[in-house]
Amino acid sequence: MEWLSDVSVISGPLPWILTGIGALGGVWLLAARAPWYRTKAVPICLAVSVVVTVVLYVMVEKVLRPFPDPIEMSIYVWIGLGLFAIILLVPRIRAGRTVKAAVGSVLAVLAVLLASATQINWVFDAYPTVGTAFGAEPFDRVQMNDLGSSTENVVTGTPLDASWTAPPGMPSEGRVLTAAVPGTASGFAARDAEIYLPPAYFANPRPLLPVLVMLAGQPGSPEDWFAGGKLATTMNEFAAKHDGLAPIVVVADGTGSQIANPLCTDSKLGNVATYLAKDVPSWVKSNLQVNPDPKAWAIGGLSYGGTCSLQMATNYPDVYPTFLDISGQEAPTLGDHQRTLDDGFGGDEAAFKRVNPLDLMAANKYPDSAGVFVIGSDDDAYKPGAQKVYQAAKNAGMDVQYVEVPGGHSFAVWSAGLEKEMPWLAQRLGLIGS
């Protein structure tokens, strides 16, 4: 069934088929002949679903505001349609009167929900295949105990590929490790990190590989980079072209929970900056055999993670002199500037400016730093900010590039951005020559 796992749910015929089946399910739910069903049940259920959806919209967008940017209206529409189908189920079963009709009604609701989920996924491209939608992982996992001790024989050099020859018996693909990276210095309660180890890491002698720290968005989790972000696939394909060489990628937790937004700073929301600047590098150097030179370290991320990567590059340039900002925001934000100041900085504008990349780049020069800003060509909400911070970074003496790839604010852009910039990143980190 491997072929089924690889079938796309964001392109090709399947999403259209699922949407069509959902439409047929909707027709079934509306097609009962009982007069009371058409004149009372359907209007009442529709009204309830509309009210609940509107309340959800108001709570998320106006009251709680857990996300810094508004959710697309189409998402609420599809949520409302799914809710409408669920509420209709009981009266539709009563109107059908037979067991066969009841089974048909349950299947119809499931079809509508599947179509709604397909349409929502189409917006974000979070699950590109059937396999990823059901949690299948297109890579092998390894446990910390399986890594063994550090090898005495190591390969070094800049570029590393000039000194490296892949030995016989080396794995053809990398492996993924889940590990707890404690907030020893920061006290930050981070979720487990997901770590990609390229094929060359399992060779003896072992090359001292560079490290790329990656961050997910908000809402999000480290696992997102391996589903919608296709990180393992991208790294395995790069390694296959370079004798098993690729960066060690540590997808660290930069938020603490699925919906938390600690602004990638040290504050009452969590000491994320210290966690990423001290705890993560310290743990990696203590537990994995890597190149410890800061020139071989980079940080990157998507959306919130992109913003955070620029924050780390400007606040801690000695730790992360290289960054990859994919669809990042203009500044750390909780949705509006005043709320950001109040909740993240105690209302102190000066405290905000001390860590805000735009302010730091206006006041300082970064001649040893380099990075790439990647943005979706259709990402109208984020593109102006990306262009602004790119220009600010350039004015601050950074060696930077601005790149647009097709798409909006979705994993289609984020996965493509990482793949596109891998050659530049590998050269910058000393992994391969020009």
What do these coordinates show?
The protein has 434 residues and is an alpha/beta fold. The chain has two domains: 130 residues, no CATH class; 272 residues, Alpha/Beta hydrolase fold, catalytic domain (Rossmann fold), CATH 3.40.50.1820. The protein is 46% helix and 13% strand. The chain has a nine-stranded mixed beta sheet with strand order 1-3-4-7-6-10-11-12-13, sandwiched between helices. A two-stranded parallel ribbon has the order 2-5. A two-stranded antiparallel sheet has the order 8-9. Helix 12 runs parallel beside helix 13. The longest helix is centred in the first third of the chain and has 30 residues. It is globular and about 80 Å long. The mean pLDDT is 95. This is S-formylglutathione hydrolase FrmB. Keywords: Hydrolase, Membrane, Transmembrane, Transmembrane helix. GO terms for molecular function: acyltransferase activity, transferring groups other than amino-acyl groups; hydrolase activity.
Write the layout of secondary structure elements.
Blueprint lengths: L1 H4 L8 H17 L4 H30 L8 H24 L2 H26 L5 H4 L6 E2 L12 E2 L19 E5 L13 E5 L8 E2 L3 E5 L15 H11 L6 E5 L13 E2 L2 E2 H16 L9 E6 L1 H12 L6 E5 L10 H9 L3 H7 L1 H7 L6 E7 L6 H13 L3 E7 L5 H18 L6
Parallel strand pairs: 1-3, 2-5, 6-7, 6-10, 10-11, 11-12, 12-13
Antiparallel strand pairs: 3-4, 4-7, 8-9
Helix pairs in contact: 2-5, 3-4, 4-5, 7-14, 12-13
